[in-house]
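Model: Ready when you are.
Researcher: Fold this.
Model:
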Amino acid sequence: MEIAATLPYLYAAAGFHPENLGEYGEAGLAKLREILQNENIAAIGEIGLDYHWKEFGPEMQEKAFRAQMELADALKLPVIIHSREATADTLRILADYKGVPGVLHCFSGSAETAKIVTGWGFYIGFTGVLTFKNSRRAVEAVEAAPLDKLLLETDCPYMAPEPWRGKRSCSPMIQSVAEKMAEIRGLSPQEMIDIAAANGQRLFLSGRGEGA
């Protein structure tokens, strides 16, 4: 939040990530609600499910996920959703919150999953994974999703695109992701960047009366 306060185009998000639920509870939720009142907060997140790292069990993860989805609904804030090796449970939970705007970030689901979640109104975000040679699922998901639901992201410091794979990911590298997404959708890179930027502003800033 301190960094976001330094420049007009920076915003922050806050939430209990499924790998970091050590301070989750009534007091933690109260503290989160307090943090979310800050004018530089644009979303709740990352929140969701992670069945790869199992420090916290599925039941606790789902409880925290649902509580934060309800908080997002109450505060009219979008969510940034983390889902790793938990697609079935993520879909089951999100089916109960179709009215809450949000993005499934670093999307790793199938084309079918992309159709389902975008049909519910959620956006899907793609990282440098889209440029990898073995990224067939990601390519198929981009093909299946509506243009107005696609977002570009870094997932910094991870998921750097080719030719920087394995390096620290950063914002200028988004150009490579945009070029690949544009190729898949038959657009110019700048057209894809413009579309994704408009989508991001609609998701995160539509309730703020912000200009371009």
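Researcher: Now this one.
Model:
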Amino acid sequence: MGRNLQYVKRLRPVDLAREHGLSTQAVRNYEEAGILPAAERTPHGYRTYTPLHAQALRAFLALVPGHGHATATSIMQAINRDVTEDALRIIDESHAQLLDDRRTLQAVEAALRDLAPVPQERGDTFIGPLAKRLGLRPATLRKWEHAGLVQPRRDPLTGYRVYSASDVRDARLAHQLRRGGYLLEQIAPLIAQVRSAGGVAPLESTLRNWHARLATRSRAMLTAAAALEAYLTDRPA
């Protein structure tokens, strides 16, 4: 296709909408949001689009599965404002986020592997012995408790913190992830998942699903790159 693609054929909103099962109002909304270039108007005020608009819509809808709606919107808005460098930077940041998500998954799997060979904890323990076992300060365990990583109960007579076997498991998992450089707010959702699953073993299917989601996002980014390149190639200079 050449640089004069936008002059080849006039399309109605319904022509763009029908290809993707959208409403004509959705197409108009995309134009108003800057996802599509501005449409020309007939003497009667009706919008008219071109094959270039159709390519822009294909590119946007291809971007959404891999990058998310908000990021896809920002990419298309930047391109249609003729600041393609901004769009490329946003794409790079999105790829970096995917890589960071992969590294997080690898850290989680490594932490779970480190937990696996250890026999199931039995009985209760207190903050001092647990801190010593993990090579931590008691203050660190108290901080983790405040962040929701561990949930020891209190002895009704002494008020001391009492860590059950599951609390020790959670503390050890948190310790592994902290050594991997992850923040408490990143660790807390995983600990909550381990707790709700009843242990580490039930998380195997969760980790498989996590791998599958990352792979799906990665493939979607490849598909989006091809659609976006087609749009960039045919935009007027």
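Researcher: Key takeaway?
Model: The longest strand covers residues 161-163.
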